[in-house]
Amino acid sequence: MRIVLVGPPGAGKGTQAAFLAKNLSIPHISTGDLFRANISQGTELGLKAKSYMDAGELVPDEVTIGMAKDRMEHPDAVNGFLLDGFPRNVSQAEALDVMLRAGNMKLDAVLDLEVPEDEVVKRIAGRRLCRNNDKHVFHVTYTPPKTEGVCDVCGGELYQRGDDSEETVRRRLEVYHTQTEPIIDYYKAQGLVVTISALGKVDEVTGRAMAALRGEQAA
Questions:
Q1: Is 131 noted as a catalytic residue in this protein?
Q2: Mean pLDDT of residues grouped by 10 in the chain (219 residues)?
């Protein structure tokens, strides 16, 4: 299957992408991983991306599209892939369509993870990380530490990242609504969108997603 995963920040796209890709035996292709890999390997596209990022500028669509195209041509993606973070806007979605048509391929589904805006803010703004190890993650509501402000694992101080503040989260949501959400309508016109609720436990959402994708295949 060839799937695009969309949803607002805080919808759990990265977590669901990993589970879905494993269940479907297809590679999970995320924009973040593409950027990191190309920059660390010093590819031409990676160097271009780094020059924009170092200057505090947005990486142009053509650079992101080039990275995605290169990754989708790897042998492990011949029978399908799950795209996470790409396409990010309508122009990238149009470019993806051109790429797929050139390879006599098509998307099977666009999985839209739906989460109420207030829940997104609650999920992200409530997150706390350990200063000693940022892999020790807690949440003031869902997974609170035994002692407020103290990491259960190593006793380090817990803190809120600057980009996890409510103000920043709401700005990120505005960007999502303006730039990325329009691709849902773009793909709805092609009859590809399957919308599911991303509320609940991780395995519940994964089960919901798999059932929705099976329905998409049957259709």
A1: no
A2: 95 93 95 92 94 88 93 93 95 95 93 95 95 93 95 96 91 93 96 95 94 68
Catalytic residue flag (residue 214): no
Q: Is 140 annotated as a binding residue?
A: no
Fold of 2-27+74-218: Rossmann fold (3.40.50)
pTM over 0.85: yes
Whether the bond between 182 and the residue before it is cis, its omega within 30 degrees of 0, is no
Q: Does the active-site annotation cover 71?
A: no
- So where are the chain's domains? 2-27+74-218
Taking every pair of C-alpha atoms in the chain, what is the biggest distance, in angstroms? 57
Q: Packing angle between helix 166-175 and helix 117-125, nearest 10 degrees?
A: 130
The DSSP output letter for 60 is P
